[in-house]
Amino acid sequence: MKFVSTRGAAPTLEFSEVVLAGLASDGGLYVPESMPQISEATFRSWQGLPYDDLAIEVMWPFVEGSMPRATFESMVRDAYGSFRHTGIAPSKQLTHDTWLLELFHGPTLAFKDFALQLLGRLLDYFLAERGERGVVMGATSGDTGSAAIEGARHSAHLDVVILHPYQRVSEVQRRQMTTVLSDNVHNLAIKGNFDDCQAIVKASFMDQQFVAPNRLLAVNSINLARIMAQTVYYIYAGLRLGALDRPIAFSVPSANFGDVFGGYLARQMGFPIAHFTVATNANDALVRGLAGDLSRKPLLKTLSPSMDIVVSSNFERLLFDLHDRDGAAMNQLMQDFQTHAVQLAPSVVEKARALFSAHAVDDVTTCATIRRVFEETGELVDPHTATGIEALCVAPAEMTKVVLATAHPAKFAEAVQNAGFDEVPLPSDMADLMTREERYTVLENEMSDVQQFIRSVMG
Length: 459
Ligand SMILES: *Cc1c(COP(=O)(O)O)cnc(C)c1O
Hints:
This protein has a domain at 86-110 and 224-418: Rossmann fold, CATH 3.40.50.1100. The protein is 43% helix and 15% strand. It is built from 19 helices and 16 strands. It has helices at residues 15-21, 40-45, 51-63, 69-80, 112-130, 143-152, 171-178, 194-206, 208-211, 224-240, 258-268, 285-290, 315-322, 327-339, 346-355, 363-377, 383-390, 413-418, 447-458; strands at residues 2-5, 13-14, 30-32, 91-95, 98-102, 134-139, 158-165, 185-190, 216-217, 248-253, 275-280, 293-294, 342-343, 356-360, 400-405, 441-443. The protein has a 6-stranded mixed beta sheet, sandwiched between helices. Strand 6, helix 6 (143-152) and strand 7 (158-165) form a beta-alpha-beta unit. Helix 10 packs across helix 11 (258-268). The chain starts with a strand and ends with a helix. The structure holds pyridoxal-5'-phosphate.
């Protein structure tokens, strides 16, 4: 498969190059040049496959040509072998027509493990092939950092440097990162906020003198391999819940639109998903974007912190399709959006409306939803998942509905307690997390200090 940039000016790349590149050189995001078309008969033949077998079938058209099939097969089995539930992505019935797709059985208890367990292995393989080492560098306010660390802790060709704001992430989230004592894992606590961490990472990626000797790798959701891995569970759940025979809608707690875009790709392959509902918290950039208003609002701190964003990076991938894959038009649009709010054309909004609905859920409603769902079903859901359940109020009523449960409630104690519940216990294999040895380095909020640190660990 070949990959093109949403802004039309970067070179067309092969899979391995896309995985290593992250962002395109023209500032755009890579998308498949064309999607493989899977027939209904083939989808039917996949019914009943275990998760890892299905994952291999769904992802192979992307990967083919970059490695032997047997190598990819063992990589996928290894990636999902660390999950706590043998179903990997089980669906649980919530009401007569609504299901929860549980995506929190991976090592760090959030859906990001689906992508990062695989991405760490892909990066390691492609670097080994080239005889190179790389540095995964990222900033985190929680979920991404721990998932990236877990995904790369065993990689022989990768170092992982994760910046988090000193004393500003929850203790569970910090410990999920800092108790991984592998030699190639480096946690930096920066004396600043998340935006400061993000700014240091962004500036380092643009600093050619720094990038050239240290192959920097991005593992945020602009990396196409992450999206590809997330396509699988839509098909896995859809096949089990009858998507081939009746209309099915997915409701997705969303921030950067990476998770939803995985479902959209499944549909582009021919899998019959009738509708997507996009759920946000009070940071409602996607609700406004899908209504045609591309604009920035100040960041709000909410009880669903993994959805606290100002600009939704992967939305550009959908906009590219909605603009008939016109890279030049996208380039203009995104340049305009750099400096001011942009109104999308009515025809573009109409196309979006045909497939997507969207709804913003504030913290008070999120807590009320956590309580209501518990009273009605006995399920205790995390605050991100709660926004997805509440957003069903804008989903088509007559469809089978699947809400993506993106995190385990034990990860988000503050919201769960706000909703009136005691703290939720961690899974038993993590019960000693609070007493494990930690390792991290505290640094000033200075790019030069961070770069100096990386140079020293890279020798
Ligand atoms: C990252 C994250 C999200 C948002 O996912 P996007 O791909 O950015 O839309 C939702 N819930 C949880 C728990 C997350 O960690």
